[in-house]
Amino acid sequence: MASAAAPDQSPRPVRFGILGCASIARKLARAMLLAPGAAVAAVGSRSEEKARLFAADNGLDAATTRLHGSYEALLDDPDVDAVYLPLPTSLHVRWAAAAAARGKHVLLEKPTALCAADLDAILAACDAAGVQFMDSTMWMHHPRTAKMRELVDGKEAIGDIKVINSVFSFRANEDFLQNDIRVKPDLDALGSLGDVGWYCIRAILWAVDYELPKTVIALRDPVKNRAGVLLACGATLYWADGKTATFNCSFLTNLTMDVTLVGTNGTLHLTDFVIPYEEKSAEFCVASKSNFAKLHTRWDPLPSKHVVTTDLPQEALMVQEFARLVQNIRDAGGKPEGKWPAITRKTQVVLDAVKASIDKGSEPIEVAS
């Protein structure tokens, strides 16, 4: 076992290997350069030349970043502690499980799997190897999210949440709609549901502290491409106590990232929940104990705006937290944090139910606990 850092020393950085050079990996490479406790040790691609170009384009130190011309070579690199895996979803089971089997901690791009059974295979491999698993849902790590959690849990401002709405969409261009991996059935068969619906489902579950819904019913007439991949869809989720949530996700409408939580005492709105408008500042609005003024000419009280600042972007905060968990295992003999795989699995289970309802013409689907 690696020796722990001396008390007066910072822990050794977690050495990341980037497994695949997808465009989203550029953002994570920057995050690893910014995040305390992290370092990019290696890049693996299907060719060494592609790995070299990625490293050069993203400011990675040529002297300290090893380049591998295959995924296997990166996983066999003894100087890699953890892998970030942004490969197409259809490749996640094979390569995430292989990374875990070689003792690498796994930061996995979302959607994490095509179905819960595949995710369970990944999580079982991580569990067997004693490595940390986390998906890369970045907004979870923004300090705004923690501030909203405080407010929601405090009950005073919002009360009991009864209704949740979420929308995540962007207007994809023709090249995306024809050629992107997210519209290819053999690469990312979940389409818009996996790519952007994942965030909506996670936001809904976050709002109810990860209590699974009882039933899911997909909205009728989802939009699919000729290959049958979802371009736009949505669903309504129902809980036994009467809570409901509805989401819409699409590659066909203007960039929108909304979440609304409606409670007995108040309403929380945010309109940039996945990627804040500004990198170092994010806000949300709360209307609490709202009413009308005399003659119903205005609201009283007015909603309040809450601004949360951060020195690091949310993706760097995610890398920092993941690195902290890995350091605890590597240097202090700690155990993997179980919260993150549990949240991932609940998100996947609900996504599976939505997909099943879509496939069955919007039939109600009971959500497996």
From TrEMBL:
GO MF entry, a single one: nucleotide binding
Domain Gfo/Idh/MocA-like oxidoreductase N-terminal: residue ranges: 14-134
Source superkingdom: Eukaryota
Residue span(s) of domain GFO/IDH/MocA-like oxidoreductase: 146-268
InterPro entries xrefs: Gfo/Idh/MocA-like_OxRdtase_N, GFO_IDH_MocA-like_dom, NAD(P)-bd_dom_sf
Regions crossing the membrane: none
Family membership: Belongs to the Gfo/Idh/MocA family.
UniProt-recorded name of the protein: Oxidoreductase
